[in-house]
Batch of 4 targets.
Target 1
Amino acid sequence: MKDSFKIVWQLLIVSVVLGGCKNVENNPKPQQKPNVLIILTDDMGYGDISSFGQQHYETPNIDKIATEGVSCTSFYVPTPYCAPSRATLLTGRFPLRHGLTKNPTPDANDMIDNVGLDPNEITIAEVFRESGYATKAIGKWHLGHKPKFFPVEQGFDEYYGILYSNDMRPVQIIQNRDTVQYPVDQRQLTKDYTDKAIDFIKRKKDDPFFLYLAHAMPHKPLAASDRFYTPETPNDLYADVVRELDWSVGEVMATLKELKLLENTIVIFMSDNGPWYGGSTGGFKGMKATTWEGGIRVPFMVRYPKVFPKNQKVDVPLWSPDIFPTLCALTDISPSKEITLDGQNITTILQGKTKNHPPVFSMHNDDIMSVRKGDFKLFVNKPRYRKKVDLTNWSDPRGPDGITIIAQMEGQATPADYPGVTPEEPKNKIQLFNLKEDPTESVDLAASHPELVKELMNVYEGFELSL
């Protein structure tokens, strides 16, 4: 009897164990960490997107990120030009902290030929790769074009693109460490980068990935493929370029949706700084290379429906150093506490739960230029203004030549196509503006609000001492 009972009991245990294993097999695997896609355009202005006010053409695919997520109407980059802005995006650190304050340029003097992001800086790609993410950078790098500065030395498993601006010679495409295309027909760049992004997503669909898609456009020279180029409208090349960028966004988003990855992917769309000639600041003063609003306020939107509401607009002044800590929080990744970050996790601000955010700053070369706190912006140094330009014999030395820089010859923007309100020479070094009431920075309030000037000067001096 005891032996019979023992056999029955053993059979029961085996049955339970096998049943449990069967249930485990039938359960889907736990949801993997969210993927991250950052789409960065080059020199796209605040007013170059229809959801941010553009009326001459439409950008429905880019706009859809905003309608299905959150768009920020007061989002800033720290510099109105490429390299320091991009370094801040990838490190979460203000340029005076990460040290890259000028643009590396291969066809200029040695002083800026050997410049790059310090290899000891920790990029978000390095943090994500250490956490098991596949990482890839596509497009413009501009954080150094010497081998020690390459993307594959800064946390990216793969790289494909031009290491600097598309008007700097030699225009050549690097894959990981090798030159794979020279010369480059820039009319195919947007499509080429889009194809490479889709290929990476398909290859890495079963594992979490971090994809940094940094388009060349609409940086000069403007270039669009035959599908989007409209020669019958000769002054429409800029619009052609932006429409193709919008198409690219649609293709990448469609791929994510087809692979059932879209709802588990954090998608960010933004620009590295304000527009060059031909673009639109959305009515703000200045342009690229100036720290007026037109040079540093950029379109920004994020889509991640698991966390963020749909079709929400946030007017709190935010900035690109916030991206690093926010992405780490959303993916449950803890960066080293030894890294000093200048941004904060803005998840609750993007959700509309709070409006608390520290002041944001801008700089040019090695000087802090402005501080914004709430509605007020204080210039602590005199910003650039537009000097009179004689366009009679003007020609762009970095324009298309059909040999080393290949793009459409017709329709390229010129200094006659100023993208924003033209800034005149400021009378004073210290200027104060209420951006809510005066978004074009036209009425200097410094003399009438000395208490605010003092308060913001203290904020600026405290930040400068912290660097």
Target 2
Amino acid sequence: MHVPDGFINAPVSAGTGVVAAAAVAISLRGARRELGGGPGEAGERTAPLAGLVAAFIFAVQMLNFPVAAGTSGHLLGGALAAILVGPYTGVLCVSVVLLLQGVLFADGGLTALGTNITDMGVVTVLVAYGVFRALLRVLPRRRSMVTGASFVAALVSVPAAAVAFTGIYALGGTTEVSLGKVFGAMVGVHVLIGIGEAAITAATVGAVVAVRPDLVYAARDRLAVRLELRPSPLSADPEAAPGPAPQPVPAAARRRSTRPLWITGLVVTLLCAGGLSFYASSSPDGLEKVAADNGIDKQAEKHAAEDSPLADYGVKDIADARLSGGLAGVIGAGATLAVGSGVFVVLRRRRGGTARNGTAAATAPAGTER
């Protein structure tokens, strides 16, 4: 659903750019809390995972899957990011992916970057996170319900993004097309794409839940390990009142290395970007198909980065298609991992520095100047 340059006029593109910039600014502040952690949270484990989530989204977005005759779809990633690393960090993950796709691979217009971040990042993250949290409040407290809730949240987020695009197009579309036709076509095809999105999201979340449930940010309160104190069977008074209510196990007692999961995730990411991407569907994705069928693409403009050595997800001057595409995918995944991890590490350190300064100020003797 990458919107190219020319689909939306300049005033509305500028407006969505302002919305996207505000969302990123808010997310930078909110992500400090998510990455820095809080009571019962493991922020130090979220920071490295967030960079990997961004790289994984980039890689899986290369895997277009067929959804109808002559149409394909791909992961948007907002639901997956929001559930695994939190809504603020999730917006940043998708924004990093979209930025690098536009600059390095000529995928998604540069003047439309604000539109793409607003639609594919902000809308999908907010809708998916809201649906996911609402479902957890009413579903039984079981791990399988977390996977099921992630499926539904991802499924809903994709047509929600299609509705949002239709609204943006209604405000600033550059061609005279019936909005009813655009709405029906966009929602219809993206419901089908949403099924693929839901399957990928649920499979990924379920895999993480199975091995490290504490790393699923949006469900930590449902998956927290608890320590229950019970009377000893050797107690002299077997009828004694039960002990205190279950209490969370201290974070230090639950801390385990994230390295095995991180390495596994990296291997899967590189396999998707460097190998499986060669077998992706070559059919146009949902937006491209709707645009072509309804004449929306008549005003599409050439991409400013069309001469990039990585344009169209291939390395320039490498004739072998498999090698060219695989190498481009690996470069893209690596760049996304590096940029995303760099952003998140800086944010976490700033959060840590702020917390330490606040603690020092609070414990300083009265009248002491700092």
Target 3
Amino acid sequence: MKIMVAEYAVATGDPAIIGEGCAMLSTLTNSFGVCGHQVRYPAMRPIAGICGDAIRCGSDCGFAESVERIARTCDAGIVIAPDEMLSDLTAIVEENTVNLGCPSESVRKCADKLICSRILSESGIAVPGTSEGADSYVIKPRWGCASEGVAVLSEKRQPDDDFIITEFVAGEHLSASLICGETVLPLTVNMQKIAVGAAIRYGGGVVPYPTPRWDEVMGVAASAADALGCRGYVGIDIVLGDRSFVVDVNPRPTTSILGVARVINREIGDLIIRARFGGLPESVGIIGSFEFTKETLGSRF
């Protein structure tokens, strides 16, 4: 099968996230390749160590055009891009081939943090509150990904259309990686290296994280993914306090996939395909652990 893996940072050369982008692209393309599939990916130029055929791409506009052009030549495809543009790009994939990621409508719900929180709350899933009286608050862009633009406030201020403000929830910063198809396949619970100061910054992770509350965390993550209609590889960010609070839903492969692919006893590419076409196993085995930082990912260019 011919598979497109379109990763935004690699295709456009975004220096802020190029290291993470190359690492995710390499993980997916090489896994699909091991499974016997032919991979095509948009890039400014071919990247050493990545299995597949690089297709020239050089700008934001060029990325969308490349996604459409390459998708037409492939049997299936998946896009990794900033959440605010992922829905439109996923719709392009859906119009031209089989989408291996979350449906575009699900992506749209996840990308809007206000809508996402409302859906989760209405489904009985714990999310940080918005009421007055908290010791501190978190302000973050309504649309966006990772910890970009996220800051801690000592007092609540009036939100606007571009930002949301919630109470600061203390606890362990975790993420849950899972694959959703007709059934949900739990993969790993991971520890996120989060620096909390005036700003909140993501610095890497440990995969897996041996929390005694694994069943609770993964159960909440699976419920969140179901409430939002997620499919394919999904990453759910959770703060583990007195409850498991869902703070973000990533309807796409995340940086944790680097570790997940190394510690599970199945090919991650095969599992993503099985999520779309049927036949997910009930569980995966985990062997060893993997730790990384944003700095150690480096640039593949």
Target 4
Amino acid sequence: MSDTIAAIATGAQISAIGIVRLSGPETVAIIDKVFVPLRGKPMSERADRSLVYGSLVDRSGDLLDLCLCTVSRAPHSYTGEDTAELQCHGSPTVLRAALDELFALGARQAGPGEFTKRAFLNGCLDLSSAEAVVDLIDAETVESAKNAAGQLNGAIFTKIEAIYASLTDMSSHFHAVLDYPDEDIEDFRLADYRETLEKAEAQLQALLATFERGKVLNAGLPAVILGRPNAGKSSLLNALLGYDRAIVTSVPGTTRDTIEEKLRIGRLTLRLVDTAGIRETEDEVERLGVQRSRDAAERAQLVLAVIDGSEALTEEDEAVLRAAESAPRALVLLSKSDLPRAAAVPETRLPVLSVSAVSGEGLEALQEAIEALYPLPAVPAGEILTNARHADAVGRALISLKAAREAMSVGMMPDAVLTELEGAMEALGELSGRTVREDVTERIFSRFCVGK
């Protein structure tokens, strides 16, 4: 990391403000050549984090823009290196010209996530906090943003490090007694650490239990609207979205393929799929659509089974109910409640609600019912696991801790217990970056956009 990197930190579209960012040993020297303060000293003689107004110029001294500039010197910066930002007007042409000047003066194009990667490698961020940067940028709900911000602030790191420290104390005590038998060190007794193992195991179990809800918080909830033709599926989708996304007609089989849209339901983001009506058909195209409907239902975490309440139950409705009952979670919706009721309430263990896409009746209750199926864990912001890599590491640490406790329970020698303990510590180290492999690090930061 001996070179200086530069990138446009804002998007490529026209905007009010655009930011060009630098990091590396030549940052301040380069900035002095392209930025001329309106008054006073150059940036190399300014205090850190001063926001200065001036001219952005090219190598010939011609004016490119009037902008703001700030410098932060190592180690008190985001990356741990000398850094600078030029806050320009948001013209892509101006930003590209500014970047070309920085390249001409010795900087190179930053790769995806390279600023945050340098922050991690320089010890300014642990790995779990660095990964939270992407989650914060991608957050689609306030709750997911708060959780990502908590992780960026070190919530996961703090919890994991406390467990890691307690296991380190146990391991170091054992090795100290083993390596220095003549020293006045208190004898190592496994039984003295039983509570330490049990507490660490309980904490990791509680953390891992948040992952199911965390996946929904971060990636959205895969949900499918299922029902026979003309049950009111597409009308329900349109009503929930607030606009006509799907074609609605009285002709059965209008929807022949799946339609997916994102939808905000309270604290949830639904990846909601409208499907072709479930029925037996001779039409080859419609039959393919029906199969896609069944496949979507199998992948979904939530099924909204729509039954036409204005007509008697059919065998097709029964097939829809069976599919819903095999899903992880499901709700049965008696549609068309604005019409006279003809269908009996289905015999099912699933909750049943009445809705009308025409009048809006029951839609608010539907949203409340969906939210109730996926409550947020009662933990502080940042302590919900949303990252599959984190969940995998915590799971492996938990397996090792359970094995260590079981080895202790059956009276095995301390070194057998410590072997499992060290496996748990290695897994936990992957969250903070203590033991992570280089290829994993590269894969993590490849998720980032350039300039972050």
